[in-house]
């Protein structure tokens, strides 16, 4: 049988380390050995150092059944452990292999069971760890802030593990790290507060920290041990993402050597599925710890991650409470609904306090109200123009305005803003001034890679390097952003109420003026229509007397003139009467009642019976419905429509007028949800071109000359006004020389009356 090692021999440098496959190094650290088993218990992988722990070489183990090498009892113990409810990454299996005692961690990598065996540790250590953990939990309850908790965890982890230095390492949004808490021997230089660039921990390393929350390097100067396998396929490999013994990247080893570190333990701190930070333990000589101590160290990390939300909430609770109180006071203000109230609002100290800003500005109707440390009006207008060009939908917030608008970098009186649009080009902006801060880096972050005659290497200098950060404000906390959003919404509503109040006042004044004007117009109209009829009546009387004296002598030259004067006076009296009828129709819909249109039709026929006989007209009418209407208006409407048909009868045929109606309510305008009954008047008169269907309902609109057809031109306009008064409508359809159809529509009491 042929064997091969699976060592990854790809050359790794700082130029390609971000792509280094650190999960498949093909090697382990030498403080334990590794075996890989198939599902049918064949030893498919084995490290070359197995002979350092038991009297067996890797060539003797590979390809054989596990029971044939280690015995049936050992296989049964492992089988029972794998299939038990034991949390395997917490409690390793204690087992005897070829008369040697080991603690074995077991996990599955694809279809291979990976066994990592280390010599069994002293049981007394477990009792000490338990006592220290109980003490820690008691002390933990006395801490309030997250920083205090992390400091306690750093101290407790150092006591439990015995490492020279323990750091709580916290990442920012870009994965730059900060030593957030630290406990170290007194003879060591403290790293507390130092920052490390994100390049120190590449992406794939961060991903591996999430998969495997514990990484141990016992001796930084270790010689990696190769893993061998049966040579039965090309590119055969073993994923060691979850392995405790996994060999470390040579780049990382060099990095630690440059720091002078001899051994490390790293615990991942995962919060909301993101790598929040690390517990980084450094020792300045080689050091190994038992599985019990490793578990206790992992528990320390669990204490932190389980408390992050609570402690951060406690840290922000006081300031958040102040913001809420400021918001409540602002929203509780009882101010008049006028633009002057903005002068009061802008001066309220709570307006700055609700999001801890240095200044605030409100723009309303192109006027800017300001308070605190703010830009000038011209700068505010320029800023708003740029923000709106970004098409901000809801709001815009930044701590460094120059990131989005480099041209504003020199505006030193503000660096951070929260902008909220308030509709109609109105807005509110909170400002924060620039906060110059000093960051202490563990070495120059720009020189994290060093080039020498041997090539590229991780930096070897960790001397403190100071960076001065300008052009940015302190971070806007979420509760501050929320408070600003809530008040912006409240202010938007107030501004809308101001506009509505002003609009309502304008409407009230206009209504008052309109009422007075209408009253005056009614008086003028009554005088003009009623009082003018008297002189016209006298003119008619005089002309009639003079005409009678002429005894119908049409040869007399004065007879024709007197006759024209009499006819003109009669037309004018008719016109004034129609105008009076038109203007006296008011919105009387509330006076409507159930009216039987059949009775209205009969009264109409009685009144115009002579005209019907004179014109030799035929009127056919089917049964008409009951509608909500006003009786005298309906009679006026029927009179106007029928008289219109008689007036515009065709000279080539006798007039025929047909009146039809809907017997049940029908839907005629679905888009407007109008439900109504209808009555249609159809005649065989001269008709009209359909393009005039709307204009014929306008006052004084005539399609024919006065010489052709007499009339005031108000009749159909009067009909339309009657139907509008009742909440209905009227339409016309015509064909030249064929006839006209006029249809009137009545609103229903309720949609429920429809079939």
CATH fold category name of the largest domain: Heat Shock Protein 90
What overall form do the CA principal axes indicate? elongated
Supply the number of helical segments: 19
How large is the share of residues in beta strands? 15-25%
Largest sheet: 8 strands, antiparallel
**Distance between the ends:** 92 Å
Radius of gyration equals 49 Å
Number of strands: 31
CATH homologous superfamily caption of the largest domain: Histidine kinase-like ATPase, C-terminal domain
Approximately how much helix is present in the residues?
Answer: 25-40%
Query: How many domain units?
Result: 4
Structural class: alpha+beta
Average pLDDT value? 81
Per CATH, the class of the largest domain reads Alpha Beta
Low-confidence stretches: 705-712, 751-755
Task: Name the CATH architecture of the largest domain.
Answer: 2-Layer Sandwich
Key attributes of the depicted protein:
disordered C terminus; 6-stranded antiparallel sheet; 31 strands; GAF; 755 residues; receptor; 19 helices; 8-stranded antiparallel sheet; alpha+beta; Beta-Lactamase; photoreceptor protein; transferase; EC 2.7.13.3
């Amino acid at each position: 049988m042929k064997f091969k090692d699976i060592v990854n021999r790809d050359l790794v440098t700082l130029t390609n380390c971000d792509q280094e496959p650190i999960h498949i190094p093909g090697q382990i650290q030498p403080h334990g050995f590794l075996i890989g088993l198939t599902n049918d218990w064949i030893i498919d992988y084995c490290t070359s150092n197995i002979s350092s722990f038991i009297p067996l070489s890797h060539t003797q183990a590979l390809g054989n059944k596990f029971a044939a090498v280690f015995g049936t009892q050992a296989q049964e113990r492992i089988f029972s452990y794998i299939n038990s409810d034991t949390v395997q990454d917490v409690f390793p299996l204690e087992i005897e292999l070829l008369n040697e005692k080991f603690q074995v961690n077991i996990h599955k990598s694809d279809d291979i069971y990976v066994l990592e065996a280390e010599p069994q540790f002293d049981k007394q250590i477990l009792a000490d760890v338990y006592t220290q953990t109980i003490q820690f939990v008691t002390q933990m309850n006395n801490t309030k802030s997250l920083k205090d908790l992390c400091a306690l965890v750093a101290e407790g982890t150092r006591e439990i593990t015995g490492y020279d230095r323990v750091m709580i390492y916290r990442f920012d949004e870009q994965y730059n790290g900060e030593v957030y808490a630290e406990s170290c021997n007194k003879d060591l230089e403290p790293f507390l507060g130092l920052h490390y660039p994100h390049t120190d921990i590449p992406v794939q390393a961060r991903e591996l920290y999430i998969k495997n929350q514990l990484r141990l390097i016992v001796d930084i100067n270790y010689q990696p041990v190769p893993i061998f396998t049966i040579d039965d396929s090309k590119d055969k490999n073993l994923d060691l993402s979850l392995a405790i013994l996994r060999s470390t990247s040579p780049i990382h080893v060099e990095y630690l050597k440059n720091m002078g570190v001899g051994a490390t333990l790293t615990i991942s701190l995962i919060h909301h599925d993101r790598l929040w930070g690390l517990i980084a333990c450094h020792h300045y000589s080689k050091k190994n710890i038992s599985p019990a101590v490793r578990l206790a160290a992992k528990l320390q990390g669990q204490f932190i991650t389980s408390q992050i939300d609570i402690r951060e909430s406690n840290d922000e609770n006081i300031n958040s409470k102040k913001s809420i109180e400021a918001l409540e006071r602002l929203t509780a203000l009882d101010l008049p609904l006028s633009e002057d109230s903005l002068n009061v609002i802008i001066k309220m100290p709570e307006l700055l306090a609700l999001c801890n800003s240095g200044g605030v500005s409100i723009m309303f109707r192109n006027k800017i109200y300001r308070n605190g440390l703010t830009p000038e009006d011209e700068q505010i207008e320029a800023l708003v123009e740029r923000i709106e060009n970004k098409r901000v939908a809801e709001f815009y917030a930044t701590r460094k305005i120059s990131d989005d608008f480099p041209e504003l970098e020199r505006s030193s009186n503000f660096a951070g803003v929260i902008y909220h649009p308030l509709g109609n080009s109105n807005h509110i902006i909170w400002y924060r001034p620039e906060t110059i801060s000093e960051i202490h880096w563990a070495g120059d972050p720009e020189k994290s890679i060093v080039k020498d005659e041997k090539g590229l290497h991780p930096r070897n200098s960790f001397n403190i390097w100071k960076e001065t950060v300008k052009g940015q404000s302190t971070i806007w906390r979420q509760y501050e952003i929320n408070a600003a959003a809530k008040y912006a919404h409240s202010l938007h509503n107030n501004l809308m109420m101001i506009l509505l109040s002003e609009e309502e006042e304008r409407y009230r004044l206009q209504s008052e003026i309109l009422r007075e004007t209408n009253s005056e117009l009614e008086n003028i109209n009554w005088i003009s229509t009623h009082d003018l009829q008297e002189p016209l009546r006298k003119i008619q009387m005089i002309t009639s007397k003079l005409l009678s004296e002429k005894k119908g002598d049409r040869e007399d030259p004065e007879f024709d003139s007197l006759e024209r004067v009499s006819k003109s006076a009669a037309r004018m009296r008719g016109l004034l009467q129609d105008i009076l009828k038109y203007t006296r129709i008011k919105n009387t819909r509330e006076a409507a009642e159930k009216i039987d249109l059949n009775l209205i039709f009969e009264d109409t026929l009685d009144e115009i019976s002579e005209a019907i006989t004179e014109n030799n007209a035929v009127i056919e009418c089917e049964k008409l419905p009951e509608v909500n209407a006003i009786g005298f208006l309906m009679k006026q409407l029927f009179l106007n429509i029928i008289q219109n048909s008689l007036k515009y009868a065709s000279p080539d045929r006798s007039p025929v007028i047909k009146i039809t109606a809907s017997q049940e309510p029908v839907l005629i305008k679905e888009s407007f949800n109008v439900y109504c009954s209808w009555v249609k008047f159809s005649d065989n008169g001269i008709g009209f071109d359909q393009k005039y269907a709307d204009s014929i309902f306008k006052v004084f609109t005539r399609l024919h000359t006065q010489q052709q057809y007499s009339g005031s031109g108000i009749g159909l306009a009067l009909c339309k006004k009657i139907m509008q008064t009742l909440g209905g409508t009227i339409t016309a359809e015509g064909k030249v020389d064929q006839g006209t159809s006029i249809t009137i529509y009545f609103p229903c009491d309720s949609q429920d009356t429809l079939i």
